[in-house]
Amino acid sequence: MTKTRADGVTNFDAWKHSYAARAENLSVSEVRALFAVVSRPEVVSLAGGMPDVAALDTELIEKAFASLMSNRKDLALQYGGGQGDLRLREQIQEIMALEGIHSSVEDITITTGSQHGLELVSDLFLDKGDVVLVEAPSYVGAVGIFRHKEAHIAHVYTDEHGISPQALAETADRLIAEGKRIKLLYLVPNFANPSGVTLTADRRLEVLEICKQRGILIVEDNPYGQLYFGEKPPNAMRSLDEQNVVYLGSFSKILSPGLRVGYVLAPPAIREKLVLANESAILSPASFAQMLVSEYLSIADWQKQIGTFRDLYQTKRDAALQAVEQFLPKVHTTRPDGGFFLWLTLPEGLNSKEMLPLAVTELVAYTPGTAFFGDGRGADNIRICFSHPTADNVRVGIERLSRVLNQQIDLLETFGKRD
Amino acid sequence: MTKTRADGVTNFDAWKHSYAARAENLSVSEVRALFAVVSRPEVVSLAGGMPDVAALDTELIEKAFASLMSNRKDLALQYGGGQGDLRLREQIQEIMALEGIHSSVEDITITTGSQHGLELVSDLFLDKGDVVLVEAPSYVGAVGIFRHKEAHIAHVYTDEHGISPQALAETADRLIAEGKRIKLLYLVPNFANPSGVTLTADRRLEVLEICKQRGILIVEDNPYGQLYFGEKPPNAMRSLDEQNVVYLGSFSKILSPGLRVGYVLAPPAIREKLVLANESAILSPASFAQMLVSEYLSIADWQKQIGTFRDLYQTKRDAALQAVEQFLPKVHTTRPDGGFFLWLTLPEGLNSKEMLPLAVTELVAYTPGTAFFGDGRGADNIRICFSHPTADNVRVGIERLSRVLNQQIDLLETFGKRD
User: Cβ of A124 and B20 within 8 Å?
Assistant: First the structure.
């Protein structure tokens, strides 16, 4: 029987025979599927990955809007160029300089969030069967894009110092020997999503050298770089090599994800193609959002705002680590120096995906580790996002999670691992 | 010699070997390439395709922003769902009802302008070599997307009453007999870009039947439908068939293209995939822009604003037709009942693409007809966009154009057709 529309689903598709091959690879992201649950106010969501936008100074956004309407109204409401607003690109140069990057304003392309930057770069490079090397675990939104492009995703061993150069070289050489074409290495070097780990300065140099020798383009995704809690992380990889790195940046974590403004810094020949791809996909990035960001950067002390976010997220990170220590003594966690995430490793034999409904019954949500692998791994991992709930709720959420987890651990210790 | 960066180009590409096959199909759109020229204030641009956003009531946009900041600030600044804001989707139902469309709010997906809607739909359906049927001429941005997907673009004979049903059936049957897979018919039934023609009610029924019989999905793109000057155009094709039509709508022409808010109404199974594709590409459509549009629709008399646009564009259309009659007596023009465009047909033997530099010297820009064909046709056509300049400047622009055109026509008549 065909389900009614009220169910929000249908099981009949008159066009089933007509889809492109790549459409087969679209699947519901485990993170996205949580959104309905997460929006219930009684649930503490440690899933998401959302910034705490309530910490923004609303008055500054209102001033930015007023300034925009006074100075650039007709431009803001109109189509713009496919590369994005020149003035904003100049301001982005200043932001990237904080990561040690010196760039030409010509080589920056503004995108609909850095997600669309990654989509466009992936579309430019990935034929079916091409290999993308990624961290283990890797960002779920990137894994989704690469899968949609029918690429082969190869996870490279990653520890608390980031991706392993030795494992990277070995994996690359093995795949090359198998006749595979490795097109990209995608990584989040600072406070990675989901692991929270940061790639050391020494390893950055080694990774650059390994990829350069093998003709592998590096895609460096850096949404969290400015959100450090202690020392600044090492300079961006792009600051060391402008020929072999495509750099992705975003305003989603230092201002607002609801504006969807990100950017790509790419070598000139790639950037030329990227602008054409951007125009083909959306004609031009939203003038209004770009110019609102630009006005905000002009009138606001945006570095102070980033400082506010740093302090806020550090407090929440501390609450998260303390709660894990107190309530989850048998669970291992990474100890991130910035960003949004803890990566938990459960005792062997537990399945984080299967436990999620139990957790939701206890009014807490998280993201199962399986979301961050393209190969089925991650069942004994959990990503905890501490950025959005209050510090108190981070603690409450982890305590709720512990009721489920510790009970499962007890069962496991009493009855042994299930088949 | 490698050109300097100051030239804005480079002729060296270290990654030339690495691009995906589809990247070969990205090319500079003839329309887009004009942007640099068009932005010089002394040039009257009849190119573009831009709405006259100066005719918007700024105060209403300011009120919409104030209301947004009071009521939904944190939601507007945050990530949203991949399908788009529910409240805006409800409002879109009302807008589509003006075209005779009755729909479920579940089947609407909000996109980054309707361009991205078309990109996502094309990506869902088009494998390399698949056929897309289009009008002759067709929208340049659609032709660009289909080319990027490595599709085969087949133009179907189109006259002043829109696409010809007979030619459509013949073209489809010929291609099917050749073993081609025809996936989509893409068309702009109301005041088409670039031809300005409107598909008659009778032909809408015939086109629907022809496509249904042959399993061809119709993509109905309707950015201009509300911008009629006299009688309302016939109801949308989607109003007659909800299973075989994907409908694209946009706020770019009734509000602002700088916000990049469009939408897709699709049958449930297609819509489910579309939401996944949207999430993969951009995570979620911009909450801020969506909610600003929603507030605007709530507080403004938006139908009155559309009425203002209608009157304004009608005046400009009249100016354009009168100027063509007066200054270009040997040139044929379509006589659109709405929208933004005239489609000129020059005496045989003239080349509108080659003449463009001469026109720019006379301080007028237009779009050569070749931009609107995937097969090299259109050299004897010109698209005139009358929507953006003042009515006086539309007249000035066409007079300037006539200096170049009439001189070329005289030369042709004196010396005959060049080889």
Answer: yes
pTM: 0.95
CATH of residue A133's domain is 3.40.640.10
CB atoms within 10 A of CB B82: 23
Domain hosting A373: range is 11-56+304-415
DSSP state of B21: G
> Pick from A15, A62, A268: which is nearest to B269 by CB?
A15
- What digits encode the pLDDT tens for the residues A317-354? 999 999 999 999 999 999 999 999 999 999 999 999 99
Q: Do B276 and A28 touch (CB under 8 A)?
A: yes
Comparing alpha-carbon positions, the chain B residue that sits nearest to A68 is B62
* Inter-residue contact B282 to A119 (CB < 8 Å): yes
Contact status, residue B309 vs residue B51, Cβ threshold 8 Å: yes
**Residue A401 contacts residue A359 (beta carbons within 8 Å):** yes
A284-311 burial: b if 16+ Cβ within 10 Å, else e: bbbbbbbbbbbbbbbebebeebbeebbe
Looking at this protein, which amino acid is placed at residue B195? S
What is the SS3 string spanning B164-198?
CHHHHHHHHHHHHHCCCCEEEEEECCCCCCCCCCC
What's the half-sphere exposure (Cβ side, CA atoms, 13 Å) at B200? Answer: 9
Same domain, A178 and A267: yes
Of A27, A269, A280, the CB nearest to B10: A269
Residue-wise pLDDT for A119-177, tens only, equals 999 999 999 999 999 999 999 999 999 999 999 999 999 999 999 999 999 999 999 99
